[in-house]
Amino acid sequence: MLAYSGSRPQHEHLGGVELVHIGSTAVQDLRGKPMIDAVAIAVPKNLRDVQGEFERVGFHRRRVPVDKDEKPYVSAAVAQAGRRFNVNVHVCHRGDPVHKDSLAFMDILARRPDLRQKYAKAKDRAHAIAPVDSQVYNEEKAAVIREIESLISADRSKSAAGCSRGCEPSMNACIEPTAERLEQGAGRSRPATGGHELSRDHLPYRFARRQT
After folding, report:
1. Which option is the CATH number for 2-202: 3.40.710.10, 3.30.720.10, 3.30.460.10, 1.10.10.1590?
2. What is the 3-state secondary structure (H, E, C) of the chain?
């Protein structure tokens, strides 16, 4: 399992596509599998065209349920510092649930050490049961994810009711402050016993902090 290291969610605009680092390796003090998950926020209406651009630089398509016309999916494998890392990218438009919900999920884990620890234990348990079967792995941690998502929904309801920015009461209420909190930065974390630290130097692509 890998431990988070470096800054909070980081961004870079590459050819009109904004890459946002998501997943466990984007959360401080949370271990994850040796892979990088990212959201590619694209402008073109036809996201399959964007998927094709990723293929031209070495990514490949996978026949998985999450690969849809409205949200294509690409993968790649890279070797860095003698280790192999998988890179999974979800291509979507800004505001897509995979984008805003991932930010909200990472935000609550960053703010709540108790939830972060609970999720880490669920991940460890799932990994012990099914280290290579992704379907079983996801099923084993699903209950904890649903619990965390219910807390996110409650937070959003409170934000919508008392939003001081004049935004419309909706699921999107105050999502930008959430992203801003995530981008404030944090120190490097120590890898858990037996884990491997994933530094920014190991990342197959450079994710630079988004300018605010």
Report:
1. 3.30.460.10
2. CEECCCCCCCEEEECCEEEEEECHHHCCCCEECCEEEEEEECCCCCHHHHHHHHHHCCCEECCCCCCECCECEEEEEEEECCEEEEEEEEEECCCCHHHHHHHHHHHHHHHCHHHHHHHHHHHHHHHHHCCCCHHHHHHHHHHHHHHHHHHHHHHHHHHHHHCCCCCCCCCCCCHHHHHHHHCCCCCCCCCCCCCEECCHHHCCCCCCCCCC
Extract the tokens encoding 183: 């981008």
**Boundaries of every domain in the chain:** 2-202
Sheet holding 196-197, edge to edge: 31-32, 2-3, 196-197
For residue 124, is it left (φ>0), alpha (ψ between -120 and 50) or beta? alpha
Instruction: Find out whether 87 and 103 touch, Cβ atoms under 8 Å.
Output: no
Local confidence pLDDT in tens for the 212 residues of the chain? 444 334 444 444 456 789 999 999 899 889 888 888 999 999 999 999 999 999 998 899 988 888 999 999 999 998 888 888 899 999 999 989 889 999 999 999 999 999 999 999 999 999 999 988 888 999 999 999 999 999 999 988 888 887 655 554 443 333 333 344 334 333 333 333 233 333 333 333 333 333 33
